[in-house]
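Need residues for this backbone.
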């Protein structure tokens, strides 16, 4: 008789545990797709389309992830900054080379 009561008790505990786990974690059905963040387009535009200036670099905001900032966003923005700096440096080198040539020709002209 004792084993029957133990078996019924174990079944009740198992049923209760199954119910609680299903209530907490769900039944495994698919969830509806997450809604898009209403600020996502504005955020992407800030990162991808705004001109890169000293003022805009200081105001850029990245989305947070589990371990800090979203690395893909940061990497893309750093690539844009690198490209902008290269263009600037190439423009500076080109204009300084022109100025150097232009200045030396004026000095040698009598």
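Answer:
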């Amino acid at each position: 008789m004792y084993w029957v009561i133990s078996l019924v008790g174990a079944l009740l505990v198992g049923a209760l545990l199954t119910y609680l786990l299903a209530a907490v974690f769900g039944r495994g059905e698919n969830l509806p797709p997450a809604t898009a963040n209403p600020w996502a387009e504005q955020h992407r535009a800030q990162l991808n389309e705004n001109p890169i200036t000293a003022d805009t670099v200081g105001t850029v905001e990245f989305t947070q992830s589990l371990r800090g900032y979203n690395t893909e966003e940061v990497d893309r923005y750093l690539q844009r900054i690198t490209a902008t700096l290269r263009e600037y440096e190439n423009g500076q080198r080109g204009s300084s080379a022109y100025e150097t040539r232009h200045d030396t020709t004026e000095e040698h002209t009598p």
